């Protein structure tokens, strides 16, 4: 079972961040995905983690699906480390997302 270590990011947060970036509201499902990808890319670039994170879909223990900005993965083929990174690596992203604590592990969806 593949697991990712990262921060959950909801669609609402991604859409709001996209609006703050000046992206026009979506008209199609493809537009929604483009906004989410652009908002994630901006957040990761702005906080300096773009080069060593990936945006992946995960599921919580309660069965809810979210996007995850992942720093690590249990599967080496994903191209991510297999261990949680040190705090200085994710501190700025944690602050931007308003998260508490270190990144957590979630099952891939």
Describe this structure in words.
This protein is α+β, with helices and mostly antiparallel strands and 109 residues long. It is built from three helices and four strands. Strands 1-3-2-4 form a four-stranded antiparallel beta barrel. Helix 1 (11-20) crosses helix 2. The longest helix is centred in the middle third of the chain and has 18 residues, at 29-46. It is globular and about 40 Å long. It starts with a strand and ends with a strand. The model has no long low-confidence stretch (mean pLDDT 95).
- Overall body shape: globular
Rg on CA atoms, Å:
14 Å
**What multimeric state do the chains show?**
single chain
Task: Order the strands across the largest sheet as they lie in space.
Answer: 1-3-2-4
Q: By helix and strand content, what is the structural category? A: alpha+beta
Query: What share of residues are in beta strands?
Result: 15-25%
The tally of strands reads: 4
Q: What is the N-to-C succession of helices and strands?
A: EHHEEHE
- So how many helices? 3
For the sheet with most strands, the description reads: 4 strands, antiparallel, barrel
Rounded mean pLDDT score = 95
Unreliable stretches covering 5 or more consecutive residues: none
N-to-C terminal Cα separation, in Å?
A: 10 Å
Helix content range: 25-40%
Give the helices and strands, then pairings.
Elements: E1 3-9, H1 11-20, H2 29-46, E2 54-59, E3 65-73, H3 87-97, E4 104-108
Antiparallel strand pairs: 1-3, 1-4, 2-3, 2-4
Helix pairs in contact: 1-2
Q: Would you summarize the structure shown here?
A:
With 109 residues, the chain is an alpha+beta fold.
